[in-house]
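User: Fold this; tokens only.

Assistant: Input:
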Amino acid sequence: MEVQVEATGETVGEAKWAALRELERQRPGLDKSAVRFQVVSEGERGLLGVGFTPARVIATVSADTTAAASPVVAPADESDLAAEARELVQRIVEGIGVNALVDVEEGDETITLSCTGPDLGMLIGRHGQTIDAIQYLANAAMYRGHDDERKEVVVDAAGYRARRRASLEALAVRSAERALADGDAVELDPMTAVERKVVHIRLKEFDGVETTSEGTEPNRFVVIRPVA
């Protein structure tokens, strides 16, 4: 006998995560590695957010499948705060059905959690939406109860953050140069809050322009204006 649920989300990864949560509610002690997924629809975001179609998946697992014990042992030199962040992200990653190892690097102001594994595309998600959502959840969870020792949590996978940052910074510079050349404001495509922050920081010291974020989520975007 099998248990089957259908779920939706903005991305396939989020839909799988929702399906796993429902399966876990129905079957406590679920072995996530035994779950099989069928992608019904990958979803589609219409122009300017109009006509959005969610991703849909069907998750199936044997009714008698239970979880095998697989405790994660923290490195001896890992701080309690870093260990908590790593274990949190590890649970989230496993929850969306991705088999990945989470490594941690702790600095004075940040805790960087790098995911490695054979199938990280689902973890990153379309335009980085899934990994940004994971990072947001991790920061929100870590901030509760750690007011005196807050550190920003950065979640990365397959070097995505560095590649995306380089791409956004190059776009920011090109757009700022165009704004100065034309004397008109330049509107960038909608971005996540994480990506908008990269653009704002890159152009903060760029002479002759200023940046603002406008619009409403999930279609909020950066506007680059020449300074009179």
